[in-house]
Amino acid sequence: MSDDPLPLLSFTGVTLARAGKELLGGVTLSVFEGDRVHLEGENGAGKSSLLLLMAGRLHPHNNTGTRAYAWDAPPAVDFRQARKNIALISRDEDERLKKIHHKSTVREFLLGHLDGQDFLYREVEAFDVPKVRAALSIFSLEYLENRLVRTLSLGEMRLCTLARMVLHERRLYLFDEVLNSLAPEAVQKVVAFIQNLIAPSAVVFAEHDRERTEAMGYNRVWRVAEGRVVAMEKQGLAVRRPATDLGLFRHPPHCTSQNTLVEIQNADFYHDFTLIFKDLNFTLREGDRWLVTGPNGSGKTTLLRILHGDFYPVWGKGHLHFKGALQHEEKSTLWARIAYVSAQHFTYYPPEMTVRDVFASRYSMSIYDYAVELPKESNAIIESFQLVDFLPRRFNTLSEGEKTRVLFARAFLLPAPLYLIDEGFLALSEKMFALVLSHLTKIPSQSALVVASHERLAAFNTQAKVALQPLPEFTNVRLTSHEADNGRV
Which end is more exposed in the chain, N or C (fewer Cβ atoms within 10 Å of the end residue's Cβ)? Predict the structure, then answer.
């Protein structure tokens, strides 16, 4: 009897296409029991699409080649039933589930998935609820049990999707940038969970941050590049750092006016009837550089959306004033003056908009009315982000990393009084991450920069490692959980 591991998944000569464009050709590979495969490659190389192919969400182009799973026998098995053996965690999957279950509580969302199926409703047994609470406890999510799914932050939704995965044992786990949008304490829990997955299962994960990849452990490396998937020899960890401190969060030396842009006084802010901030007080000035950190669900995204003008204080409880370069009478005028990069905007643009349209909307300040041609001055930015060939492609067909590149390029097309970046870095390859940082160091000295991010910036900027300061200096901002502290900053 052979002791060789069982192949859980095999591709032979498979071609993969997205939106009519061939991405990968002649893919031949196998995933075996116990495998821990690291998937690497540039943004847009096809990593996410390959994971979708493995998950059975995409199928070989023109039925090329063969795809076989260990659980295919008998041949008449319903593949939707077979999907119970596969767990897929990705940003698109998070968004899909959030839309489907937007009216459900987290507990209802999880109760509907105890048997591994993707059902909205199922008959609940008395012993089901303890299972759900045990899954929530793995990621310290007990406080979310009665929250509506639509109110969850990106990080909270990611953790709930992971809790959903825990409820039913899988044989193949596919993780697409699984640690994105997670606070450091949540990252530790997720890494520990992946490390402790039972050996007969297999794990394939795409991840740009090599330090975190090393922590999860892997025995094989595949590189996706130039339309091919190539097995690579596993290399030791090599974290690349710039030679000098970029100083992103220091006040620019040439900014002396320090005029006020945003002022908040004794304000309470709610999101979907949930208190996020209580008695919030701060002033954002020209030239300010803020790094906003905090646990998932502490209000980082909400804080940036307040600065974007999306939320206002509860009636009669505090004041929010936009001043100087951000003073406005119409909301569209304010939004035109703020460069905002957020994963929340992955689904913001209408599905018919191409990448060229997304760029053109930066100049027209409207996603419904924009010029057919881009001005020549946009060429340099578009070329630097290697997006010339992307211009005719529909924005909603791009990968997470490609969408992020487009949103950053859009932000840099015109100077702005305020730049807001909400977890915009983790989907980027090392090359594109370094390019974005170089652009951020060149924004006008009088512009304010507010970045909500977790750990990745610390590897590139020593200033981001400094102990966070309390008000009123407010250069580094730490948010606490609003569940525990009523939204204190």
Answer: N
% of the chain surpassing 70 pLDDT: 82
pTM of the model: 0.72
CATH of the domain at 435: 3.40.50.300
Give the dihedral of Cα atoms 249, 253, 255, 257; nearest 10 deg.
110
Q: Shortest CA distance to 22 belongs to which of 54, 52, 55, 45?
A: 45
Give me the sign of the Cα torsion angle 441, 447, 453, 455: positive
| Residue 310 domain-assigned (yes or no) | yes
Residue 474 has pLDDT above 50, yes or no: no
* Residue 158: domain span: 89-169
Helices (H), 101-216: 106-111, 128-138, 154-166, 184-195, 210-216
Does any domain span residue 29? yes
DSSP 271: E
Distance of CA 486 to the CA centre of its chain: 26
Closest CA to 91 of 13, 181, 12, 11: 181
Rounded distance between C-alpha atoms, residue 444 and residue 438, angstroms: 13
How do residues 346-398 score in pLDDT, each as one tens digit?
A: 888 998 999 999 999 999 888 888 888 999 999 999 999 999 999 999 998 88
Indicate whether 27 and 51 sit together in one domain. yes
- Bridge partners of residue 320, in order along the sequence: 264
Query: In this structure, are 308 and 412 located in the same domain?
Result: yes
The answer to whether the beta carbons of residues 12 and 21 sit under 8 Å apart is: no
Q: Which two tokens stand for residue 383?
A: 């070329």
- Flag whether 438 is in a domain: yes
| DSSP codes, 427-468 | TS-HHHHHHHHHHHTTS-TTSEEEEE--SGGGGT-GGGGSPP
Burial environment of residue 76 by CB neighbours within 10 A (0 to 12, 13 to 18, 19 or more): exposed
Does residue 255 fall inside a structural domain?
no
